TrEMBL record:
<feature type="binding site">
    <location>
        <position position="316"/>
    </location>
    <ligand>
        <name>4-imidazolone-5-propanoate</name>
    </ligand>
</feature>
<keyword id="KW-0963">Cytoplasm</keyword>
<keyword id="KW-0369">Histidine metabolism</keyword>
<feature type="binding site">
    <location>
        <position position="174"/>
    </location>
    <ligand>
        <name>4-imidazolone-5-propanoate</name>
    </ligand>
</feature>
<dbReference type="InterPro" id="IPR011059">
    <property type="entry name" value="Metal-dep_hydrolase_composite"/>
</dbReference>
<dbReference type="InterPro" id="IPR032466">
    <property type="entry name" value="Metal_Hydrolase"/>
</dbReference>
<feature type="binding site">
    <location>
        <position position="147"/>
    </location>
    <ligand>
        <name>4-imidazolone-5-propanoate</name>
    </ligand>
</feature>
<dbReference type="GO" id="GO:0050480">
    <property type="term" value="F:imidazolonepropionase activity"/>
</dbReference>
<feature type="binding site">
    <location>
        <position position="82"/>
    </location>
    <ligand>
        <name>Fe(3+)</name>
    </ligand>
</feature>
<keyword id="KW-0378">Hydrolase</keyword>
<feature type="binding site">
    <location>
        <position position="313"/>
    </location>
    <ligand>
        <name>N-formimidoyl-L-glutamate</name>
    </ligand>
</feature>
<comment type="similarity">
    <text>Belongs to the metallo-dependent hydrolases superfamily. HutI family.</text>
</comment>
<feature type="binding site">
    <location>
        <position position="80"/>
    </location>
    <ligand>
        <name>Zn(2+)</name>
    </ligand>
</feature>
<dbReference type="InterPro" id="IPR005920">
    <property type="entry name" value="HutI"/>
</dbReference>
<feature type="binding site">
    <location>
        <position position="237"/>
    </location>
    <ligand>
        <name>Zn(2+)</name>
    </ligand>
</feature>
<feature type="binding site">
    <location>
        <position position="237"/>
    </location>
    <ligand>
        <name>Fe(3+)</name>
    </ligand>
</feature>
<keyword id="KW-0479">Metal-binding</keyword>
Amino acid sequence: MTTATDAAATPATTAITHIAGLVTNDPSLGEGPLGLIQDAAVVIDGDRIAWVGETSKAPATDNRVDAAGRAAIPGFVDSHSHVVFAGDRTEEFNARMSGRPYSAGGIRTTVAATRAASNNELNANVARYVMETLRQGTTTLEIKSGYGLTSEDEARALSIAAAHTDEVTFLGAHVVAPEFADDPAAYVDLVTGPMLDMCAPYARWVDVFCEKGAFDGDQARAVLTAGQRHGLIPRVHANQLSHGPGVQLAVELGAASADHCTYLTDEDIDALAHSDTVATLLPGCEFSTRSPYPDARRLLDAGVTVALSPDCNPGSSFTSSMPFCIALAVRDMGMTPDEAVWAATEGGARALRRTDVGRIAPGARADLALLDAPSHVHLAYRPGVPLVSAVWRGGTLV
Ligand code: NIG
Ligand code: FE
């Protein structure tokens, strides 16, 4: 018998046994929507899950890791981050906590710091946040550009992001670049023309911040459809600070996800419920901007697929912690612990249109987190406690 630490030299097959409660997210493997298995074992072969079941039925393997009654969950799938940046916005946060409201304007502070940073500095920052998320159980991380806002700076951000993840998103339309403050239409022309030509080869997704103070519905449509013509799939920052056209546009264009979804009409919810567009909720934003949380209960009751993400960025939500978001979603957004854990794993995978992550099932990538707790419910029950005690990504203990 070896411990989790001994397993670092990954043999061909490894069984993790005596998992108190295993969340598989595959209802055919266990109980309920989480496919929960008690006293479970998982067999890893190379970078894939080879077998899942009860410990007593586990096949022989080259190595065994005794989970000793800890719970295990799929690695978190974080479908929304802005971690290519330099500097921070401590002063803006301080002012906000003294009563000043959040606005999109602060993004320009980070744009200036990011443009001034070297490639090495930006790359080191991304590496640091990727490692920070990994330690907290996140094994898939989407990364956006959006703090460059010139063709060169956006392409640079995307090429750095692409060195760390396959899930790269072009967000040249984060806000209008300062140089174009008097001519937003010309900035949209730049984003949909030369900037997209330079950036599309690095990205899988195209995103836009559809909001007052950023881009209106027509501008957002122009950005997303131009991205589609370059083979990118849309996702939208929608209805974060006010009611607006973002969610309806996301659904109309078949976006993978509408993110934020804080201010929703009944029509918005109905549109999401009758679409394949996931509603990705980002409660770190409402926490860090002292704003009302999105109503996850209303979305779930209407049949909308919900994902959770920390939205790690230096302005509205400077947290990389999915467990923190799970706790907020349960405490303040009407989600059950089961729903929140699902949203942070399988929900994120749906928002990225991935079937190989977000679940622990034969054939899936071997991404899982062991918790220093007997149940996944402790992620909400013990807020702020670092429960993630071991993480495998692609079969390797990290
Ligand atoms: O998702 N809403 C737009 N973008 C980020 C915030 C970026 C910033 O304030 O720097 C978000 O909240
Ligand atoms: Fe965001």
